[in-house]
Amino acid sequence: MLQALHKLLTSSTNEPETDGAVTLGEILRRDWFELWYQPKIDLKSKRLVGAEALVRARKPDGGLIGPGAFLPGAKEADMLALTERVILTALRDFEDCAAHGAVVKLSVNVPASALVKLPIARMLREERPRAVNWPGLILEVTEDEVMDDLEVANEIAEELRTVRCSLALDDFGAGYSSLARLRQLPFSELKIDRSYVTDCNLDRVNAGLCETIVELAKRFELKVVAEGIETTSESQTLLEIGCDVGQGFLFARPMAKGQFVAAISRRLVAPAKGPLKARRQDRQEDHQEKDREIRQDIRENTPKETRQVAAALPRRVTAG
């Protein structure tokens, strides 16, 4: 299933190349900015549960410029201008996704300074989608940019919650947050740095670190997202230790918004189930799993001459 999902999602996706020297200010002035999206997948159901917005630039000749060419060393004023445009664009892009049948919770990367210097709560209050099923927005802040003033950070997070906006701690493990500090930070989601995810199925140290991070996040009631998943074995290992969501090349590379919306409209990525439908499906899956266990037990413990009778047992039928 994972291979099919990856093939369908990436069949027409080309990532941008780092191309030429250009500044962020120039990209904003020339309106070369655009958002690409990388799906976030529920590791258990393999369904789409969100997407992370990633910045790209497209030149008039169609050439694409990766963020490594214009984000490092960018001026703070330009970073703030970019952050504002990213948030407003993501809000509009949600409506395109919803129009094609997927209520997708989007996340955007923001510098910690933007939480203080931009009126993000007001922006969301004025520009957010008016659909009743809008799930909100996630702002991702890297661990090394976490605000020093915890009181201010919590005040900002509380204001953002009133407009359905939550904070995610990005690249966790790459910085040096203490456990006590993590407990005080106003995050609802924790993203495991890809350096720990890589070969977590083979590397005992990485596996142990991932398991510790997941356990820690669960204690603090945080959702856990693993970044940079590239193999089925990594995905399975993360699922077994309790990780909720994953993203990475195993599922899909980042893709232009048009390709992302097209994938949704063609049902190449199945949206997450609604609560009632999910409960019904989960009950049905539980019954099917019990039936499989019973049949396996019969095969292993029943004399050979009676197995044909066991094989003829009807499957359980559950109400829809």
What does this protein look like?
The protein has 320 residues and is an alpha/beta fold. The chain has two domains: 271 residues, EAL domain (TIM Barrel); 48 residues. Helix content is 44%, strand content 17%. It has 13 helices and ten strands. The longest helix is centred in the last third of the chain and has 27 residues. It is globular. The N terminus and C terminus are likely disordered.
Layout of helices and strands, plus pairs?
Blueprint lengths: L1 H9 L13 H6 L3 E10 L5 E11 L5 E2 L10 H24 L5 E5 L2 H6 L2 H8 L9 E6 L7 H12 L3 E8 L6 H6 L4 E4 L1 H4 L6 H16 L3 E4 L5 H9 L4 E2 L8 E2 H9 L9 H27 L5 H5 L9
Parallel strand pairs: 2-4, 4-5, 5-6, 6-7, 7-8, 8-9
Antiparallel strand pairs: 1-2, 1-9, 1-10, 2-3
The CATH architecture term of the largest domain is Alpha-Beta Barrel
Secondary-structure element pattern, one letter each: HHEEEHEHHEHEHEHHEHEEHHH
Q: Percent range for helical residues? A: 40-55%
Sequence of strands across the biggest β-sheet: 1-2-4-5-6-7-8-9
Query: What is the CATH H-level superfamily of the largest domain?
Result: EAL domain
CATH class of the largest domain: Alpha Beta
Structural class: alpha/beta
Largest sheet: 8 strands, mixed, barrel
Quickly list its features.
320 residues, 2 domains, alpha/beta, single chain, TIM Barrel, disordered N terminus
